[in-house]
Automatic annotation (TrEMBL), chains A, B:
PANTHER family tied to this protein: EXTRACYTOPLASMIC SOLUTE RECEPTOR PROTEIN (PTHR33376:SF5), PTHR33376
GO MF terms, alphabetically ordered: metal ion binding
Residues annotated as binding substrate: Q154, R175, E213, E239
GO biological process entries: transmembrane transport
Keyword Cell wall biogenesis/degradation attributed: no
Organism: Allofranklinella schreckenbergeri
UniProt keyword terms in alphabetical order: Metal-binding, Signal
Cellular component annotations (GO), alphabetically ordered: tripartite ATP-independent periplasmic transporter complex
Protein name: ABC transporter substrate-binding protein
Length: 360, 360
């Protein structure tokens, strides 16, 4: 316990001794603000920030509180990194790959094409070099990250027409996430369209868009995309998992007491675990509903996967040639992935191959 | 903040005001004891209990401490459930399926043959009915459980001879976990041998044992089993994942302040997440080492998987006919699993099928 927190503790106790306990709750010793890049209408994503706030308050007995703000309330969805840099906010919740315009390295913290699956991503960050390398990079932006939950493997998007070969991507007007995936799809001839979430449905209905990739069944079903595009492709090879994260202001974190530091870190773990489990639980339920409403599930043919892989590797090579730091992180990521593939081949994969093939 | 914790807070502050701060750490307000079923020599498993203790201490500022004891120190490895029932300990760390001798329902909280994989198991407990159903059952033993980390998909064991068909299981002297898996293997003709971990190596070397199943590469390699059995089979269809858990004494938990309750729950999340990531990270490293030392990796042929599945389903049917509670939990587990299989088929599985097949 450092001197500052001892003083704080004594201050709180003074109030208690005077018999005005309720004042403690009215005036938390530490009050933080978190800005999310997600709207309230995405309950798993924004819900993760709400879990964080509830946990921090409960563990600290109300002495540390975080007010959480959906996208647009304090600043635009993508303004959160700038706000951390200029100390306007204490925390953010976002997907790091939204910020590849600042630096492509951001993508590694969330998802890259042909990347790691959920447990692999956690492992790279927790016990591989992932967290260490990424937080050394994020330091220049005045934050460090920790998981807020993983969407698990995403779908490959909604299409008005079947995608039978790489040729079918040429000229396709598609709403898609940016960053390294956007660059990869551009190589395949996709014409990326920037359309706000609220306008996607209409654009797809009218044919302003030919295709949309968003997240997975649970989130996609909320947009009603199945009503205007019959084909739902898998797997989402650009997001084998997508780690949504909390971005914590380093300066503000360093001002916390040791107890509050530990409480914040643990609260993020709770939010991450519950959010990943939520995606695992609710995706199949939404998928069944979509299939009942006549959505046609289609697997990307191997020719598409091969073309996507080739294009993605070209994109990575280009970035590696421009940035030694990008290269270092990418090489570490792939080395870790190679070991994970070796392990997956003799563990979950052959197990799933059997259990997915029988009548349970 | 309840009255009790307010008084505690004031007491601590009084000590601080008197300038004898170190006494706070010397005398934690709450001191718990945890008994593990695992030895210190299994660093991922016992390490999870150590993370728990470190987290609780850090978050509470030393006001809540848990002393953690490896198997045998306070009581034998399998004495922990009795010790929770008679309030000898505040917590345990164990694998619930060790206690199927008390009731077969215990197995659902850890692993059953042809069960859920890691993320699926977390989801069943966090957002399905798993935790609710199991903790209602555990109440009669005076504890509730939460994950301490998952071993992830286990291997199918070490064999002195190749296992080419179900016939090869007949009369096979094998060291294996008990419970529903033991009953399943007995149906296949396996003669289960109860041999302490320390004697496994010698027994396998001498031929007292024909086969051994333990955990996965990281833990197995420590026993040196590769030196006395050449064949290492996969997948471990009886432990598609194995959830190691903390068992918390309900009476003692109810005596904690709201802050300490939240701190304990969050600390378990930290320990679980880091432990699962440790298995994911260290299993492939150990696997590469084993393969370099000439271990022959073999996949169980489909005839074995089919025979195992048939035997397992017979075991489940027998238990269902004897216990309505077993049936209720098993049916809920399988309904959840069916949805998970639907989801896996269009998400991680086809992704892994591709990424595992190419040269990265």
């Amino acid at each position: 316990m450092d001197r500052r927190s001892i003083l704080k503790g004594a201050g709180v106790a003074g109030v208690l001794a005077a018999g005005v306990a309720p004042a403690v709750h009215a005036q938390p010793a530490v009050r933080w603000r978190l800005a999310s890049s997600f709207p309230k209408s995405l309950p798993t994503l924004f819900g993760s920030a709400e879990i964080l706030a509830q946990q921090v308050k409960a563990m600290s007995g109300g002495k540390f509180e975080i007010s959480v703000h959906p996208a647009g309330e304090l600043m635009p969805a993508f303004g959160v990194v700038d706000a951390l840099q200029n100390d306007t906010i204490d925390m953010a919740q976002s997907a790091a790959y939204y910020f590849t315009g600042k630096d492509s390295i951001f993508a590694f913290s969330c998802a890259i094409p042909f990347g790691l699956t959920t447990l692999q991503m956690n492992a790279w960050k927790d016990h591989g070099n992932g967290r260490k390398l990424l937080n050394a990079f994020f330091e220049k932006y005045n934050f460090f990250t920790a998981s807020a939950g993983n969407t698990t493997t995403q779908m490959g998007g909604w299409y008005r027409k079947e995608i039978k070969s790489p040729e079918d991507f040429k000229g396709l007007k598609m709403r898609l996430g940016g960053g390294l995936f956007g660059e990869t799809m551009a190589k395949l001839g996709v014409v990326a369209q920037n359309i706000p979430a609220g306008d996607i449905y209409t654009a797809l209905e009218k044919g302003t868009l030919d295709a949309v990739e968003f997240v997975g069944p649970f989130d996609d079903e909320k947009l009603g995309l199945n009503k205007v595009a019959p084909f739902y492709y898998y797997p989402g090879w650009w997001e084998a998992s997508a780690d949504i994260e909390f971005f914590t202001n380093i300066k503000k974190f360093n001002e916390l007491s040791p107890e509050n530091k530990a409480i914040l870190m643990a609260a993020m773990r709770v939010a991450a675990a519950e959010t990943t489990s939520a995606y695992m639980t609710f995706n199949p339920i939404a998928l069944k509903k979509l299939v009942a409403e006549k959505t046609q599930l289609k697997m990307f043919p191997k020719s598409i996967m091969d073309a996507g892989f080739k294009a993605a590797m070209e994109v990575f090579a280009e970035h590696e040639s421009k940035s030694a730091e990008f290269k270092k992180i990418h090489q570490d990521f792939r080395a870790f992935q190679k070991d994970q593939i070796l392990w997956n081949r003799v563990s979950e994969f052959p197990y799933n191959q059997y259990i997915n093939s029988i009548k349970l």
